[in-house]
Structures are given as C-alpha cells and as structure tokens.
UniProtKB/TrEMBL annotation:
Highest taxon, organism lineage: Bacteria
Binding site for Mg(2+): S229, T250
Binding site for K(+): N225, T244, I246, T249
Molecular-function GO terms, alphabetical: GTP binding; GTPase activity; metal ion binding
Provenance organism: Pleomorphomonas diazotrophica
Entry's family note: Belongs to the TRAFAC class TrmE-Era-EngA-EngB-Septin-like GTPase superfamily. TrmE GTPase family.
Protein name: tRNA modification GTPase MnmE
Key words of the record: Cytoplasm, GTP-binding, Hydrolase, Magnesium, Metal-binding, Nucleotide-binding, Potassium, tRNA processing
C-alpha cells in the first residue's frame, strides 16, 4: 500500500483560503478523525476541523472524493482552511504526526493520477503547462493538452496502426496461396500514408506549439552604442539592462519576457557586435552571435540605419531593421525609425512586433508543444516512412508499424517511460 500524501496546494501564505490536499489509503481515517465523520462524496461540507487530541484547529470546508473516480484515482480530500500561517502550520503538523502520512513531493498528485491511468503523459504535461502558463496563448494551448486532445489523437492513431497490422497479418496468412488480395495491400499502403501525413502536419504545427510554450525568441543585435539596451528597457518598460554611453557596457546576455498580444516573447539584449574590446566583452559578443543563430527574429539596430553585416544575414534568421535615436536625426526612408525619447515610436514598434508574433504563432493551438513530444512523434513518422517502401515484405511493414505504435506508446506514457517520468514531474509545484 502506498503512503498517503498531503500538501498545501494553494499559494503563498497568508491568504484568504488555504487548500490542503490529501491522497491515499489513509484519507478516510484522516477525514473521520478531523471532521468526526465522512461527508457526502464531492459535496462541500462545513465542519470543525480537529487535531488528533480533539482540539479544534479551524472551521472550514471539506471535500471528499472517493477513489477511483478522483483526480489521483485514490481517495482524495481537500480541506479549505483559513489561510493563516499558524492555522496551516497546525493542520500540517497534525497530518504529519499521523502514521502512514507524509508531505507530497513536487508533482506527486499528478504522478499518481498518471500511474493510476486517470490521465496520460501528454495530459500531465498539459497540466504542468497550465500552471506555468503566463500568457493567453500558453493557457489555451495547455488547456487543450490537459483536456486530452493529444491523448485522443494519439489513441486514434494507435488504433488505426493496430487495424493496419491486423490487415497485414491476414495478408501473411494468405501468402501461401495464390490469391493474395492486392486490394488489401493497397488499402494498407493508403492507410499508412494517411497516418504519416496527419502526424507530419502535427509535427510542423508543433514548431509553433513549442514557440507558444517557450516564447518566441527575439535577439537584439547591432553595433556598440546603437541603443540596444535602451530599447530593450523601453520595450520592457522597466530597467533591465545597464545603459551608459560607454561602448561595451552590456557584456552578457539579458533576457526579458514580454507578453505581446497574449504570446510570450523572450527579448534578448546582447553586447554590440564589433571587433576588439576586452576579453569579457568579446565573450559577450560571441554569446550574442551564438544566441542569434537559434533566434526566431533578429532586431538589427543601427543609429544610421545601416544594414547588418553579411555574417548576420548569413544566419538565415529573419531580420527586422531599425534606425535608432530617431530624435537625433531627420526622417529616414525605408528603415523603420525608433527613439526611446519618443514613447509613440516605441509603442508603434511594440504594435509591429505584436502583429509579427501573432502572425507567426496565431491560429488553433497545436498539440505538439515540447521536444519530448516532438521526438516521439518524429520516431513514429520515421517508422511509417520505412513501412511505405514499394514491394516490402509484409513482415518488414508489420515490424515498422509496431515501431510506430511503440513511439506513440512512449508519447502517451503507455510504455518505456520510467526515465522521463522523473524529469517531467519534478518540474511541477508541490501540491499539484
Ligand atoms: N538621443 C537618444 N539617445 C539614445 C537613444 N537610445 C539610446 N541613446 C543613448 O545612446 C547611448 C548608448 O545606449 P545603449 O542603450 O547603452 O546602447 P547599446 O550599447 O547598443 O546597448 C546611451 O547614452 C543612451 O542614452 C535614443 O533613442 N535617443
Ligand atoms: Mg547595451
């Protein structure tokens, strides 16, 4: 029998209400001890909540969810206490003294839900993302995943793979005879190709999904003193970067998270690109370049409106050119101008960036939103490709379909996932 786990599932104290959640075999005993009797399942019940010695700790609402139809699949209870530090400390102290009870580890409630088959791995990931979501697009995407959209899709794919394999088995049974049904193998070929195309569509949408989840990366590049740090500050509306008129002030990378129209954007300030400078600055420049290689967009800043050098263009990352310090010079043609001394020009730039980000990340929330999911799905696609060759022996086709099915099994956590579980659940908060 497993331990009964408990945790403060609501946020920092003091708070209006504090929710303490429990899951495990001792839940009934705890509820009876504290409230005197077991309340009706799933109905909020007001009760005096007592410690083991009968002393009243608080008066609060109590919810009891009998397993297996609970979040974790075990008996679960929620105590809604007043969110005072002493109240919560007294209640957690009472629970900790009971035999078979211990504090939950990060993500342990969700892990139990997964292990008891209440949710699959993509739903667990969706729940983690939902709690971490900071922007509207992240919330929508996480909610879709947590609601089982990916699980349903993967289950549909797996069922169809199994059907296809059944067809091939039938084919193999016929193979001693002359009348191997050609229609059947044609049908199987079409079925495989369709599955592969659907998965490929989700994979390519997933590039967007990963950006929605992790933030679109915008790297600010330009010569020293171009006004990069000033603009990053102005866009973020707070002082994040050190601004001076000594060239080479920004020696490391500075990241700012922005919410642009509901999309997360990671704005990266870098050291100016130029030759020379001291060793530390040179390292800053190297990091800036390296970061730009993997960026989604480069903002190239130059106070004269000059184009970026060839090696920046050669990165193959889209570049938005900006002429900075527009308050100092006249109007420039072609290149967009901005000045941190002119809030309207900064707001215009924010609008422009927001439209750019929305056009790249907008649309229905993709299913794929992390590298792990992408890896599993890519493996399934690769296996299907190997099953598509002309005139392949039926055994080879069947084996590739099995591999594709295994890849989907790893995606949803049905098989072979012990090593990834730790890394997924440890990123949750305690009490989830
Ligand atoms: N007049 C004016 N000065 C600016 C503007 N943006 C930056 N500066 C000045 O240019 C200098 C260099 O700015 P900084 O942001 O540190 O440039 P970086 O080296 O590219 O990060 C500082 O003295 C800033 O005050 C601007 O829009 N107008
Ligand atoms: Mg700087």
């Amino acid at each position: 029998m497993s331990d009964t786990i408990f945790a403060l599932s609501s946020g920092a104290l003091p708070s209006g209400i504090a929710v303490v959640r429990l899951s495990g075999p001792a839940v009934r005993f705890v509820v009876e001890t504290s409230a005197g009797k077991l309340p009706k399942p799933r109905q909020a019940t007001l009760s005096a909540l007592r410690a083991g010695d009968g002393r009243v700790i608080d008066q609060g609402l109590l919810l009891f969810f009998p397993g297996p139809a609970s979040f974790t699949g075990e008996d679960v209870a929620e105590f809604h206490l007043h969110g005072g530090r002493a109240v919560v400390a007294a209640f957690l102290g009472f629970l900790g003294d009971l035999p078979g009870l211990r504090l939950a580890e990060a993500g342990e409630f969700t892990r139990r839900a997964f292990e008891n088959g209440r949710i699959d791995l993509t739903e667990a990931e969706g729940l983690g993302d939902l709690i971490a979501a900071e922007t509207e697009a992240q919330r929508r995407q996480a909610l879709r995943l947590a609601g089982g959209a990916f699980r349903e899709r993967a289950e549909d794919w797996r069922r169809r793979l199994i059907d296809l394999r059944a067809h091939i088995e039938a084919d193999l049974d016929f193979s001693d005879e002359d009348d191997v049904p050609d229609d059947l193998s044609h049908e199987v070929g079409v079925g495989i190709a369709n599955l592969r195309k659907e998965m490929e569509r989700e994979l390519s949408a997933g590039q967007r999904g990963e950006r929605v989840r992790d933030g679109l990366e915008v790297v600010v590049l330009g010569p020293p003193n171009a006004g990069k740090s000033s603009l990053v500050n102005a866009l973020a509306e707070r002082e994040v970067a050190i601004v001076t008129d000594i060239p080479g002030t920004t020696r490391d990378l500075l990241e700012v998270r922005l919410d642009l129209g509901g999309y997360a954007v990671l704005l990266v300030d870098t050291a100016g690109l130029r030759e020379g400078g001291d060793v530390i600055e040179a390292e800053g420049i190297r990091r800036g370049r390296a970061r730009a290689t993997a960026a989604d967009l480069i903002l190239w800043l130059d106070e004269n409106g000059n184009a970026p050098p060839q090696d920046v263009l050669a990165l193959g990352v889209p570049v938005m050119r900006l002429r900075t310090k527009a308050d100092l010079a006249g109007i420039s043609e072609g290149v967009k101008a901005v000045s941190v001394r002119d809030r309207t020009s900064v707001d215009r730039l924010l609008d422009l960036l927001t439209r750019e980000v929305a056009s790249r990340l907008g649309g229905e929330s993709p299913l794929v939103s992390r590298a792990r999911q992408r890896d599993c799905l890519s493996r399934a696609v690769a296996a299907l490709r190997n099953a598509e060759g002309k005139a392949l022996p039926a055994e080879v086709v069947a084996d590739n379909l099995r591999q594709a099915g295994d890849a989907l099994g790893r995606l949803t956590g049905r098989i072979d996932i012990e090593e990834v579980l730790g890394s997924i659940f440890s990123t949750f908060c305690i009490g989830k």
